[in-house]
Design brief:
single chain; alpha+beta; Protein Transport Mog1p, Chain A; 8-stranded antiparallel β-sheet; disordered N terminus
């Protein structure tokens, strides 16, 4: 229950104006790979890629997350969950890198990173039990991923997992502009 609430609270905090799987500048829906569902976007500025398909399967598997992601239409995000395992979420958000809203009021610390050719920020929130990486795509668009720990015992690995997932996803992301 705690993980579900944290996943919802953390991701709701970052989902101000988000797009989801099957992002398309034309605004049409297309099926996500692996049987997931899709969302649409009418924003011509949104980069074209599927945020549900960029995470490295080997890292997800090492975390015990072997099922296809579920798309949460309400939050416009992809979620990987498994019983007794940390959760992962991804989305594309409309805010500048380093400007992630703190709607859940957990005051994450922010550490600048470079991942591949992209500027990024590692966000760690021990209070919220999550760690994430935001990767800048455009001046106003950020690819966000979060690892939500099921409890304080798994939290120490959350930031390592978030960085590994971001590093594996980066080559599949559009070039930053």
């Amino acid at each position: 229950m705690r993980r579900a609430v944290l996943l919802t609270v953390v991701t709701a905090g970052v989902a101000l104006v988000a797009t989801g799987c099957g992002v398309s500048a034309a605004g049409s829906a297309s099926p996500a790979t692996g049987g997931g569902t899709t969302a649409t976007s009418t924003s011509a500025a949104a980069p074209k890629f599927d945020p549900c398909a960029v995470l490295p399967q080997d890292v997800l598997s090492s975390m015990g997350l072997t099922d296809q992601p579920k798309f949460d239409r309400q939050l416009s995000q992809c979620e990987w969950t498994a019983n007794g395992k940390d959760g992962v979420s991804t989305e594309v958000d409309s805010y500048a890198l380093g400007q992630r809203p703190d709607a859940d009021n957990t005051h994450p610390t922010s550490t600048p990173l470079t991942i591949g050719s992209h500027k990024a920020v590692l966000l760690a929130s021990p209070l919220g039990g999550w760690c994430g990486v935001d990767i800048g795509l455009t001046a106003t668009t950020t690819f966000s991923l979060a690892v939500i720990a099921i409890d304080s015992k798994t939290y120490p690995a959350a930031c390592d997992h978030a960085k590994a997932l971001a590093t594996g996803a980066e080559p599949k992301l559009p070039a930053s502009s």
